[in-house]
Amino acid sequence: MGPRIHLVNPSDVSFGIAVITPRWLYVLAAASGTAWGDPVLVDETLEPFDFSTIAPGDVVGIGIHTGNARRGYEIGRLARAKGAWVAFGGIHATLFPAEPHEYGGAHTVVRGDGDIVWPTVVRDCLKGAPCPQYEGGRVRGDDFLPARWDLLPEGRYMWASVQTVRGCPKHCSFCSVWRTDGQEPRQRAIDIVVQEIVELRRRGFRFIALADDNFYPVTLDDLAKARRRVDGSSLRQLEQLRQERFDLMNALAQLPDDMVFFTQITMEAAEDTAFLEAMNRARIRGALIGVEAVTPAGLKDVYKGFNLVGEELVDRLRLFSRHGVNVLGSFIFGLPSDRAETFRTTVALAERANLAFAQFVLLTPFPGTLDFESWATSTTDHQTVEGIPVTKYWLIPEIRRPKLLMPHPTLEAEEIRVRAQGAWDQFYSWRSVWRRSRLVTSLKSRVAFVLISKLYRQMYANTGIATDSARVDRSASIARIMAVACRRLFMARPMPDLEVPVSPTVERVA
Ligand code: SF4
Q1: Does residue 190 contact residue 176 with C-beta atoms inside 8 Å?
Q2: Taking CB atoms and a 6 Å cutoff, what residues make up the pocket around ligand 1?
Q3: Atom of ligand 1 nearest to the CA of 177
């Protein structure tokens, strides 16, 4: 047997069952081709990598973001010790291409999108002469590869993930998407997206996450501004982008009616009734919305002045649920303008706004963001944990990593952590979750809603904010048990004969 390709999604915690398929693994599997046999896909959110499967001369591709970089480096070192060629990619490797060489045993690093460049990397490794670095760049929407869903393991994921657009025109200070994926939206051809979704439904997936940076890349405000310009080219371009979104949603509406979609979107979509109605017809039943803060000062802190506050914010968020789109609101704690009362006010607003789910994350300076740059330049290298500068906090073992890195003008870090944990406790108490479960109708759906809420909380709050390793382990064990029950609720009977619906675009031309 010749050398094999292993693609690894690193994780310190394995749950046995995961919520969403790590799309990049299956896309890179497609990019790998079949000349070297099917790649071996390893998702450590399911189970840890079995290093005995590596033979000398194999290629091990490891995709990392800041949160799993440390585990990725550990895997890289062990794989290299077994004689494999080690290649790193992903957002963190793109931002710090020297780091995998220094800490992860890398032979090579791929920056940017791997869709096109990956086969060259593999070929060079197998010839024994990889370049230290490859530039994948930003591939065009038409060049995004469909994923190899035929390699999915049976019974391990609740939702599949399909990407329809990469890039976001906004510029939030805590987010790196607009700087790494670019501000120009790159949309995929609708027919290809629909074909992928049909393939997933054939396999029994009826819940699909549209894993886009921002599902609403053209706002009414963008169009109004473009209309005021003398040169009409940008208006035409924006109108075309917008039309493609509607065409996509019309195509989704033609899929089997037990299908449900979930995406990420900015709050501005609520002002666009036509868009909300199209989402409803397309059965986009959930959206993650970055609310971030509930005060004007908080929004200013994160350059998100396009969001609303107070009762206007409540009304706008309710518009989504009125159109059948349940909202997972994302809030950030630890902003300079936060005060002790902010935590309670935020949870109260999340409840008043009829949010189905909420996440309360601690302000973290992620590399590639404006926040990171200003924090790193103002933090001296003398601040260390176990000899590692806090400005490279991802290299510090998770359990000893400071939970809050950016100093707060009035609150202690521990107080912010405890109050943030309190916000999760309050929002996900049995009573609150049962009350919110009225968002769905049947008793079975309400029970499912409760289970999923509790699973979400176990997976994200307790493992992310807790400082006590026993609590983290306990949460992971509970999540493992709940995940088995939840997965059954999400899957449907496979439809192997499902046809791809006729594209609305083709219909128009005909
Ligand atoms: S947080 Fe969302 S809206 Fe802001 S830049 Fe990132 S992807 Fe765009």
Answers
A1: no
A2: 168, 170-172, 175, 177-178, 213-214, 266, 290
A3: 6
Strand, helix or coil for residue 292: strand
Looking at ligand 1, which residue's alpha carbon is closest to its atom 3? 170
Per the CB < 8 A criterion, the answer to whether 350 and 327 are in contact is: no
What is the whole-number distance in angstroms between the Cα of residue 270 and the centre of ligand 1?
16
Residue 437 Cα distances to 35, 51, 159, 262, 450, angstroms: 50, 43, 20, 18, 7
C-alpha 371 to ligand 1 mean position (Å): 13
Closest atom of ligand 1 to CA, residue 266: 3
The H or E element containing residue 40 is strand 40-43
State the alpha helices, DSSP H only, in 379-442: 413-427, 430-436
Residues 189, 142 contacting (CB under 8 angstroms): yes
> Is pTM beyond 0.85 here?
yes
pLDDT tens, residue by residue, 297-326:
888 888 777 777 788 899 999 999 999 999
CA distance to 60, 187, 211, 238, 398, per residue, from 233 (Å): 45, 18, 29, 9, 49
**Model pLDDT for residues 318-359, shown as the tens digit of each residue:** 999 999 999 999 999 999 999 999 999 999 999 999 999 999
What is the Cα–Cα distance from 164 to 208, expressed in whole angstroms? 12
- Token pair, residue 490, equals 């999400």
- Mutation pick for ligand 1 pocket among 171, 174, 186, 213 (CB with most ligand atoms within 8 Å): 213
